[in-house]
Amino acid sequence: MPTRRLSLSRAVPAVVRQSHGLQRFMLLLGFAIIAAFVIIAIFAPLLAPYGFNDDRSGGVLFGTQQAPSADHWFGTTVGGTDVLSRVIYGTRTALEVIILAVVLSSLVGVPLGLLSGYLGGWLDRVLVLIMDALYAFPSLLLAIVVSIVLTGGASGAVGGILAAAISITVVFVPQYYRVIRSATLAVKVEPYVDSARVVGVRTPRILGRHIFSNVAQNLPVIGTLNASEAILTLAGLGFLGFGIEPSAAAEWGFDLNKALPDASNGIWWTSIFPGSAIVLIVLGVTLVGESLNDILNPLLRTRGAETTSADEKEITAEFEELTGDIEPSVEVRDTETSEKRVAALSLSDLAVTFRTDAGQIHAVNGISFDVAPGEVVAVVGESGSGKSVSSRAVLGLLPSTAAVTGSARLGDRELLGMSNSDIRPIRGDQVSMVFQEPSTALNPVYSVGWQIIEGIQAHRDISKKDARKRAIELLDLVGMPDPEHRVDYYPHQLSGGQKQRVVIAMAIACDPDVIIADEPTTALDVTVQAAILELLLSLRDRLGTAIVLITHNMGVVADMADRVVVMYRGNIVEQAPAGQLFAQPKHPYTRALLDAVPHLGRENGPGLVDENELVLKVEDLVVEFPGGLGQPAFRAVDHVSLEIRKGEVLGLVGESGSGKSTIGRTTVGLQQPTSGTIHVSGNQVSGLSDRQLRPLRSRFGFVFQDPASSLNPRMSIGQCVAEPLHVQTEMTQSEIDAKVRSLLDSVELGGSYVGRFPHELSGGQRQRVSLARALALDPDLLIADEPTSALDVSVQARVLELFTELQQRLQFACLFISHDLAVVDTLANRVAVMQNGALVEIGPREQVLGNPQEDYTKRLIAAVPVPDPEEQRRRREARGHLLTDIS
Amino acid sequence: MTAEVLAPHEPTPADPSRRRRGPLNPLARYMLVRVALIIPMLWVLVTMVFLLMRVIGDPVTAAQGGRLNAEQIAERKHAAGLDRPMLTQYWEYITGLLHGDFGTTLTDHRQISGIITEYGAATLELSFWALIVAFGIGIPLGRLAARYRDRLPDVILRLFAILIYAAPVFFVGLLLKLAFTPFGWPSSGRASTQTELTLDNVHPHTNIMIVDALLWGDPKIILEVLQHAVLPATALGLLTGGVFLRLVRINLLQTLRMDYVTAARARGVSERRVVRKHAFRNALVPVVTVMGMQIALLLAGAVLTETTFEWKGIGYELTQYLKARDFLAVQGIVTAIAVIVCVASLLIDAIVALVDPRVRF
User: Fold this and answer.
1) Entry pTM
2) A160-174, A287-301, A654-668, A805-819: least confident range
3) Which residues of chain A lie closer than 8 angstroms to B330, CB-CB?
4) A496-508 vs A448-457: helix axis angle to the nearest 10?
5) Residue B70 sits in the same domain as residue B134
6) How many C-alpha atoms does B8 have within 13 Å on its Cβ side?
7) Which of A550, A571, A801, A843 is deepest in the core (most CB within 10 A)?
8) Is the domain of A82 the same as that of A137?
9) Which band of pLDDT confidence, cut at 50, 70 and 90, is reported for residue A327?
10) B290 touches chain A (CB under 8 A)
11) Which of B182, B192, B188, B128 is nearest to B308 (CA)?
């Protein structure tokens, strides 16, 4: 595989380039030490003054236990040999054993881990059992036993080294196995592996091309760990007297064994030198392994590189296309808002800069806005607009790599530049925060009550008992059912909406003047979102709190905000009262943004296509997942029947866990149905084996949700798109190349993208590549599972437009799975609504979305906030307060 | 759209009391599952040891070969039951284990269970002291390194951790011996011969030297026993402590980046409390889990440490029997070690469950 060799030869310098400071020093020091030992090992006969077993030179005995001298720099051993020569020759033994052990154990452990992780089943279970048993066992003992089994005791040089290497291999195979298996388990559920399976790629190719290439990045780290432990184990074997026969090869551990009695007699040179050699070589290898781990571990990278600049460029491109040459930093500010107001929180000229490995990043470039008591100010913007960063800067919650300038005043106090101990009493007491993801904002090991009480006691000098009473009151206030009991629940025992209620309870615990809510409903289902927004508004009314609401969702803005601040790339482009902003957006970016947002009920999706032939026919589909020990199976799909005709788009909507994705996966054979049948273009596809299904796979394509993981990071765009053609057709390479180009053209990506890699593309571009790949085989049926929900709104609009155009042109049938009713409203002919695995309602788009018959559909539609404050207010009044009960 | 279409009072989706109801409380259920998983693993280990020992050849020839003639060997084999079919021997071995019978040594006809209780106590004592040293080093220094990430203390501590990981435990032992013997600090054995003889009279005799010494009550003897433990415990404890240090550091760094840590800061919790209550406690979960795996390392290290310091524990005995090629003894002792490892990992699982409510409920 030429590509892999290439990437390996490039790996070392790349790693060095990625490192910095101490890491780089450690890495280079490690490499230097290893290189020195390799040189010593190769030139041992030239470097060593004597043979490792010589006890005399020219017939003259060296003498035993002689102290270091000019003749014997390191002295002589109890056996009368030269210590220096033994240490030098010992390097050879050590390196031979390391190389053999690392090669042998990776040769055995890696394939076993790959197969076991990928195939699963009984093979996996048996292997896990055996490997765990081997792993749990003291490795040195195992090595001793194996080496005795192999050699019956002592042996010669070659046999001895081989035996040592094999015994060490047996010990380390489980480590490779475990690491590779768990990496395989993680990689195999990645969408790009699923998408390879969807087009019918065979198992060996999936294992090599898609899994191994992505798992292999773990190998350098475990390889170095393995190498260092191999040396230690070899030395341990020698020290106990079970290693290589001393006359056959020099071995440091054995020498230390012989030096053991010397230690009590003050003879230091026999042990210090071989011991230091062991320490040094292990040190070298460990330094390399440790720094590799540090550099490659994504959890420990400095932040800043997280938002791919490609995404921001894409938004910029959309912006420029829509707005022409207008400087984004020119702010359009409505004159009415500049009247004298008493602000609760007021930012002026706030700027944030991050120091990252890639240089300085200006996240926020001097923004000013304020929020008055009882007011909701929405800060909207797309990825990279700096909306979250600016709010965290206010409370001093940014990492130490951030530099903040400007001013943030709370009443008459300046918050910026406050010391940690000065700002701590303000956090949570006067200004508090609600976070985006309630499941990560709550500490999993403490009960929710404990965490609320902690917040109260940080500011109020009250007893635990009173604080607990207050916590229960707060939970009651935020609409948590049964607060007396729930106060003792742990976060994982609550639903997403309930967790967000807890987070809000914490935020209001000390009656703050300002609440900063950072995408408080983004992680929640739409009905839960409606309830949480309702709660925030009622708290504002009751407590008079000022709320800064950070969001990307224009519907939420229209629902909640009194005033709106629109941000774009670290600048405010417009701020105005909500009604005015939606009615007459002044800045071209605001206009473009509002145009891009689909509006439920105002979209003109296509009508019906009744006369075309059936492409997908799902009959009475049931899918169950086996439950855990003693728990019943979970029914994800419950007797669902639906059909889609040629040229028709069926929008499948529902909240999380409704089973809509499972239907999509079952249709393409990624999941076996429990009962029921699926026909695609007249061929039954359910209940088929992989082999039987393979020829039928060219009939359907699949687009996955997450653009970050739907393309194999190790394959170029061209390779990704070409894969279905390679697998399913007999086309020649040049035919394939031509087809790939035309496919990329059809999704508006030029030929220059063929050689690029997924990480160089933005999210929207990656989704377009996914679309091209899904359409490569001219499928009858396309299944799109939330294809745009990870994209920013302006990018989403572009992708949806492209999708609609291709669908009209190619007339494929499409199952479009989405949680976003407004998106479905733009492109579906018919709509199906799912709840708890069952189909609630199915029918023409206008009917289901415009005049729903079922209660659940009505509730779902009522919960969607539309991007128009006037209309949204009417909708809110019409639906009453009943959504508040949902969490 | 009218108000009544919105059905009131949706059931809350995740009501734990409804979702997970079983005959047992969740912790008991969890531990039962762990025990059920340990049994096949133990069986695999025990069978592996048995098979390995049979691959070597017949134990009598290995131990006595050369000293006895063919007839005597056959006689001994018959006496030890080694001339019977493999399956019969395996069955006997397994049923013996179920009754707590680990077999008898070939060379000196001792009950292996007796060896284990006698010498195992010494190893237990050594591991105990070593763990104290390891915790004492690993946890505070790991926290310190995480706190000063990429600054001088972190650099020094990381180099220190790598260095003590790189140094084989027996080399550290040798260095300690070289350094402290000149000052007359005891560096071999668990106590002086005289003290050992004295302590043999203690009733009940636990063979855990410090307990015996405390029962005897002579402060001089207690001091002596403690002195003997210092060097071996340091050597072995440094090894494990280095691992703990790195684990604590890296997990603390990871939990410090979690949202709930930011959330705690955002509600005004003091930085000390954030680190102690939120970051550190959560970092402990993976640390404890990995500690379970370190038991094997500790035991392997104990074998080497015991040899270095002539600490007559189970590892020391094992190497003696290995050298004597007494494979029946080796089989029994190794099996016992396997059992100890499994039981210890079970205990660790219980501790993890206590620290992490997600496992408990």
Assistant:
1) 0.80
2) A287-301
3) 145
4) 10
5) no
6) 6
7) A550
8) yes
9) low
10) no
11) B188
